Amino acid sequence: MSTAMIPSVIAERDDLPVLPLEKGRQICDRIRQLAARRHEQLTQLAETDEELSSCIQVAYLQRAWEEMGYASWEELCKREFSEARMWDTIEARRKTVHSLLLNVGMSTRAIAAVMGTSDATVRRDLATASNDAVATGSDANDVATASNVAVATQPPSTSDTALASSSPRKSRGLDGAIRQRPIGQELVDRRLLVAQKRAEGKTQAEIAAELDLTQRTVSNDTQAIAQYKQKLDSAQQQRLDEGRLSRTELTELVGLTPISSTQRAIVSAARSAAKGLSADVEFLTESVVFNDSWLGAEAECSSILAPSLISTIHAFAHWLGHEFRWDDVPEDKRMQYHDHLIEAVKALSSATGNLVPED
């Protein structure tokens, strides 16, 4: 049945004749066929998107550029993917971007390189996805097929070749220290359930259908479970297969740090906001304050910038003094931050003197 059946003008629907029985059955059959085709296409698209992210993950984590003769990930992407269309809609791009950050731990620059966008666009996509997750209270997995929050901004060492989706992952922080990455509580619970159903003899296809997952997801979970079992003794493995090993026990035994979906969304939002702040400061520094034309417009620009900057500094000072915790900051970084704050206090003291000069 073609679209020729559909009247071209539907505004005057009162004048349209009632469909004959045969025509009514034909169009209802067509609606069912199109709905089934759409569902199939969406399923195939979801699986393709998941495989695309997985392939990018492998190429990035296992440094594909080194043996291919490229100097960096960015050069590989420029040479190999310049003609590739990695996304077709803004929503699809945001999902892929969020997934690459959470699943793989790629920096915004690395994500921008493979997606063919700018670093600023990636930051906006991350902020949008994170804000949506926080606003709706939804799991970050609903925004993107993400399992972990990434801490690293650089690729792992060549020896770290384990796929992020199939084994407990570690990351290298900005201070160079290796840390265990956190893992979502919901992901641990799902893998516990997959382990139990695999032990019952069910196939990946059966598990995928029962839990409303893709077979690739079940496959990834099965690989992760195999990695977990390497750290368990036989009794613990049996309890895992029987569904008697709790989330807390499993994460402690294999060295994972479970966090909630809300925590994941907040951490992601904080990371994205921090990068955005750095970019804004860099822009103001280079394009405004240190611009050659500043000397002729400093009074006007100061009056424009001062309200926002002072309000921001007031909020930041309160956070630093009363809300922030420094447990995860290395000692050398603490000393560096301490010195920077001392300098900032001196500069602010000069600012207060300039605002209200003493008689």
TrEMBL record:
Molecular function (Gene Ontology), one example: DNA binding
Keyword Coiled coil: no
Positions with biased composition (Polar residues): 152-168
Renumbered residue ranges of the record's region Disordered: 152-175
UniProt entry keywords in alphabetical sequence: DNA-binding, Transcription, Transcription regulation
InterPro entries in the cross-refs: Sig_transdc_resp-reg_C-effctor, Tscrpt_reg_HTH_DeoR_CS, WH-like_DNA-bd_sf
Name the UniProt record assigns to this protein: Uncharacterized protein
Organism in which the protein naturally occurs: Dermabacter vaginalis
